[in-house]
């Protein structure tokens, strides 16, 4: 385990933070363990972050669950060269206090008012720094890669769901409710593997980045580790480039640089295959399997006359006991899924079969919600883009396990999206997927 405590807190620079964690990148003297890495630390609400915990000093913290899920599960589905390296590191309170003292004022004020680094943690995560270095890093959240099979869809949803992808339907609903600007980004373009369509997807993402002033969820751009907004777009240009006033010129240089790695990397193909192969029933078919399993178990118990009403999918059922999956459950699932030794049949409603399809659906959701990071050289409009190269020029991040308790919300959201969708003349999302040998 690399020893972060041997580095000085001043060797680390604040990068960014999310709801649960905060990230620092290593800027100290050259060091084999830390060059090109970031340190991800857990946060806690203000007031709790610095209250000494009741656990004994030196008592072992559990390892971060993200690391176990990645090493025991994700690395079996995704070639490790496309994943950031994640390592557990030891921390102590004195070191963390010094880090806070040096860097806390660099955090946004609103965040500082809410939470802080959890000084009670004895462990953190050291990860590959995918956005730093003297280059651009483009973070894309691609979302759903496929159209569902019509087999398990209801009459009400079949037409829309087999013609319009889930992301485009959801975007329309979010725009109508004022939750986001209208976007014409369609993930099926990005996943198509065809240059013209991938370029169209990039231009749509760029447009969303401009209209949202960089806050769009599906595209983030970093230059040498710094988050870039449209107003800073000159920062995307290589040293020595004349300033470019026309944003379309920068957009075209950006699209030309990004399209090649996206066409060459196997990453989008892998995500598309996993998403569709793990979600064969659609949430509608999964929900139906849940209900059929409840009535099958009830009739086995010969209680069919006094059957309680069906429970919502993912909730606690009086008919079977399905617990939140833990790492051993995921690895057993993957043993079956990868070896194809044990087949499950959705027409046969048993608790085992239901459990299999639920875990599959949750894993599919992980791949629908992850992001990819593409590393590019600085842009030189009007020239042939140079590629960073190497398999790690495209990596997958944010592969977190999803909870069974989400299934009920997802089913409800699915119904709302279908009910609110208004057909747009000429609009069809084309799923170009062709299985390769
Ligand atoms: Zn679409």
Automatic annotation (TrEMBL):
Q: Which InterPro entries match?
A: Ins_P5_2-kin, IP5_2-K_N_lobe
Molecular function in Gene Ontology? ATP binding; inositol-1,3,4,5,6-pentakisphosphate 2-kinase activity
Enzyme class label: transferase
Q: What is its EC number?
A: 2.7.1.158
Cellular component terms (Gene Ontology): nucleus
Q: Name one GO biological process term.
A: inositol phosphate biosynthetic process
Q: Pfam families annotated for this entry?
A: Ins_P5_2-kin
> Domain text from the record?
The EXKPK motif is conserved in inositol-pentakisphosphate 2-kinases of both family 1 and 2.
> What name goes with this protein?
Inositol-pentakisphosphate 2-kinase
Q: Which organism is it from?
A: Crepidotus variabilis
């Amino acid at each position: 385990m690399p020893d972060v405590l041997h580095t000085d807190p001043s060797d680390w620079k604040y990068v960014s933070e999310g709801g649960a964690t905060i990230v620092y990148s290593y800027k100290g003297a050259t060091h084999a363990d830390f060059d090109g890495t970031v340190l991800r630390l857990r946060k806690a609400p203000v007031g709790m972050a610095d209250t000494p915990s009741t656990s004994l000093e030196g008592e072992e913290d559990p390892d971060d669950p993200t690391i176990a899920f990645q090493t025991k599960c994700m690395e079996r589905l995704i070639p490790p060269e496309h994943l950031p390296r994640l390592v557990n590191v030891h921390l102590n309170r004195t070191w963390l206090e010094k880090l806070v003292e040096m860097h806390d004022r660099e955090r946004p004020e609103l965040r500082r008012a809410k939470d802080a680094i959890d000084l009670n943690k004895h462990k953190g995560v050291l990860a590959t720094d995918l956005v730093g270095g003297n280059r651009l890093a483009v973070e894309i959240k691609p979302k759903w890669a496929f159209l569902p099979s019509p087999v398990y869809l209801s009459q009400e949803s079949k037409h829309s769901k087999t013609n319009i992808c889930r992301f485009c339907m959801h975007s329309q609903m979010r725009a109508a409710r004022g939750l986001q600007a209208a976007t014409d980004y369609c993930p099926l373009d990005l996943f198509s593997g065809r240059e013209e369509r991938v370029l169209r997807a990039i231009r749509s993402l760029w447009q969303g980045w401009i209209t949202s002033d960089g806050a769009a969820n599906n595209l983030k751009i970093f230059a040498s580790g710094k988050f870039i907004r449209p107003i800073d777009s000159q920062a995307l240009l290589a040293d020595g480039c004349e300033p470019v006033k026309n944003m379309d010129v920068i957009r075209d240089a950006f699209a030309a640089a990004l399209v090649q790695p996206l066409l060459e990397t196997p990453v989008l193909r892998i995500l598309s295959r996993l998403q569709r192969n793990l979600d064969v029933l659609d949430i509608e078919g999964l929900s139906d399997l849940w209900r059929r399993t409840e009535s099958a178990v009830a009739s086995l118990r010969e209680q069919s006359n006094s059957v309680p009403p069906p429970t919502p999918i993912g909730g606690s059922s009086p008919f079977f006991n399905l617990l939140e999956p833990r790492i051993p459950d995921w690895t057993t699932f993957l043993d079956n899924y990868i070896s194809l030794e044990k087949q499950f049949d959705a027409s046969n409603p048993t608790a085992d079969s239901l459990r299999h399809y639920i875990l599959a659906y949750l894993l599919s959701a992980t791949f629908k919600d992850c992001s990819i990071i593409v590393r590019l050289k600085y842009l030189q409009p009007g020239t042939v883009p140079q590629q960073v190269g190497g398999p790690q020029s495209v990596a997958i991040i944010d592969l977190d396990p999803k909870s069974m308790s989400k299934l009920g919300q997802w089913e409800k959201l699915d119904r709302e999206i279908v009910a609110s969708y208004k057909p747009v003349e000429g609009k069809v999302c084309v799923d170009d997927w062709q299985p390769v040998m």
